[in-house]
Amino acid sequence: MHDWGFHGWGMWLGWIIGLIIVIAIIWIIVKAAGQSGNRNTSAGKSALNILKERYASGEIDKEEFEKRKKDLM
Question: Which of 13, 34, 58, 66 is most open to solvent, judged by the fewest CB atoms within 10 Å of its CB?
Answer without folding.
Answer: 58
